[in-house]
Amino acid sequence: MGADTEPDGSSRSDEEWDRFLRESVAGVPDSPKEPSARARDVAKRLRAVPGGGVAGRASHPPARPKRRTGGYVVGLLAVLALLGVALAPQRWVNLITGGTDSAPLSAQRPTADQPFRGSPAARWASGPAGITMPKAETVGWMDAAEVERALARSRDFVVASGLDRGVLRGERPEKAIAQINPHQKDVQELLRVAFRTPSEKNDPLLLFSRFKPSRAHLVGDVVKTRGELTYREGERGALQVTADVTFVYPVARADAGGSVDGNDEIVRTIVRRELVLSWDDPDKVVTEPGTFSIVSYKYNVTNGGCGAPTGYFVPPFGTDHQQAEADREIDPYERGTPVVRGESSGEECGRATRS
């Protein structure tokens, strides 16, 4: 019977030998008894091998696991990105689309020194600078130079009706009225009645921006604007100019001194106007030199008051503002939709989602 066989003649497996040798060296209680002289000899040689390994079987320290830092960094960045989108979604949308208006701005309250703080209008141009002008070319009965002068006078009317400080304080807009064709009967009737007894049909707000001094006053010297003038040939070869301009007026409740401190509420009244003006050929239409006829007028307003027309914008302050929040919401900075007359009064009054 060989040294590697059991008494019954069966062969020991390598695994059994390994276990036997390990337990023999370690002195494990109840370890298997030595089956042969060969085992004693092998155990003796095993003790002489450095590190206690099994002779003939290389003993290697376990390899350290490699640190996979790249995956952890990528995962961390992904988590941070998702957190940023959750906390400031509009900022990420603007980053991707190139937009400039940022929703988180709405949480910033305006101040006397920064009346447009928290508003998309903070990035807009001021006054007439926000109204872009097209290149003048010959149209109908006018050559390019005449078209250029008519465009400049059209912008003058927009400025006189929507930016003149006296008009904004409730004064009669004499300079603007002087530019309107005095022979246009329907408009002249509107002007005759509107300032005395304003109504839904004859309301000065259809053409002019006005605030009642006893109710509200402008904060600072700046009104923000964004809009443009365009033109085409109209009826009878007339030059037809369309002005589509949004005005942002920061206002505060009127007080004795007309000043604003850190505790005063500032509301931004936002008005978008669309005026279509016709510079008529005097050989075809009764008109006066340097004047135009008004083809149409429409406007939207938010934070300008609801209810029966008074001839003035009535900004909501305090509890009035809370009441306005129950009405339909509209975005006054959205310029991709048509201007619809009527959003300033009655049940159609809208509350600004941004101001």
Provide a brief overview of the structure.
The protein is 27% helix and 17% strand. It is built from nine helices and nine strands.
Architecture blueprint of SSEs:
Blueprint: H1 14-26, H2 37-48, H3 69-87, H4 89-97, E1 125-126, E2 131-132, H5 144-162, H6 165-168, H7 174-177, H8 185-194, E3 216-218, E4 224-233, E5 239-253, E6 266-279, E7 293-302, H9 319-324, E8 328-330, E9 350-352
Helix pairs in contact: 3-4
Protein architecture, described:
The protein folds into three domains: 1-60, no CATH class; 71-100, no CATH class; 106-352, no CATH class. It has helices spanning 14-26, 37-48, 69-87, 89-97, 144-162, 165-168, 174-177, 185-194, 319-324; strands at 125-126, 131-132, 216-218, 224-233, 239-253, 266-279, 293-302, 328-330, 350-352. By secondary structure, the chain is of the alpha+beta class.
Which descriptors apply to this entry?
355 residues; alpha+beta; 7-stranded mixed β-sheet; two-stranded parallel sheet; 9 strands
What is the number of domains? Answer: 3
Number of strands: 9
What's the alpha carbon Rg, rounded to whole Å?
42 Å
> In sequence order, what are the helices and strands, one letter per element?
HHHHEEHHHHEEEEEHEE
Number of helices: 9
| Main sheet attributes: strand count, strand direction, barrel closure | 7 strands, mixed
Arithmetic mean pLDDT = 78
Taken from the alpha-carbon principal axes, the silhouette is elongated
Report how far apart the termini are.
Answer: 102 Å
**Overall helicity:** 25-40%
Uncertain stretches: 2-10, 51-63, 92-103, 322-326, 342-347
Which structural class do you get from the secondary structure elements?
Answer: alpha+beta
| Portion in beta strands | 15-25%
